[in-house]
Fold these 2 entries.
Entry 1:
Amino acid sequence: MCDIEPSLEQIAVIKEWHKMVKNKELMGEVENYINFVFKILNKLLE
């Protein structure tokens, strides 16, 4: 799926987003954005 492990900084940012985002619908948007970014990174690094 994803060969690249997220860095500690990325994990920290994602955890902060989880704390800030209480709205479930908005959380879905954030997760979609994260997935989108990882897809782009995977394409660039192929």
Entry 2:
Amino acid sequence: MASKLAERSCRELSTLRCICRPSLPLVQPSSRRFLSATRRCEQQEDQQGADDYTLNVGRAISALQNDLPLFFDQGLADTSIYSNNIILYDPHYTGMHVEGKHVYIGVSNMLRWSLGLWFDDILFSVTKIRTYMENEEDGGDDMDGGGVTHFNAFQGFSSTLPSIIPGPSQSIELSHMSLPTSSILSSLQHNQRSLSTIPKSSDKIVRLYVRWKLEATPRTLLLLPDTSSTPSLPQNRSQYEGLFLYKFDQHGHVCEHRIESVVPSPSRRALTLHGLGSLWWRLRGALTRRRQPELGIPL
């Protein structure tokens, strides 16, 4: 009987201890889970932003390689790679400085039209491209040295895309190269899964140099093609070489197109015609911006 009473007393004492024991706060583990989820969300957003930038830059490079050789046939086929505030700058020949995608496309169309008046059978080719990182020293038009294309800073890119993304010791030689955009996008998307670290800002490609070559036959008449059926003496084809600089904004879109060099220099008549056309598009762009509605505060 005594043992039963003792056992009952122990059981009641144990129950009393459980009731009186202070419960652990439920806020702490919930808060920890919330903070960890927030950190994961921020990391995913940073990773997504870096991946979007890389995809946009890769798509822009692919579009330029595909569009530039066909520029005089179809113009700028893909205009989504350009920023709405893109700047076209020619500091050496015409001093042209225009801003806005609408004006940029207009000046490009005007260039196609003006060169079509002077030349026939125009062949435009991209011969070399070269990229620079954000904190990398800019070599300008020195395109003959070792390449500085560092897409392989994002793991696996150089091995997956050897035709467009070389290693750090070589630049890209191109000869009428045409690489489908879908192949670059699929390869870049495939390599997103292999990224072990988020690319730093210094790993981003922010500048792209494009060396090009233009060959064309001068027209016999100023404004009309030679439609005469009589045989004529063969004409020597004119050749020009030049260098373009493209810069990318924080979203990976082309925000500046700079004409670095054209050899030999364009003629004065061509520069005058091109300057008048660019002036027209600058005035048109200014009028377009003024017509945009603005929200005012009523007095």
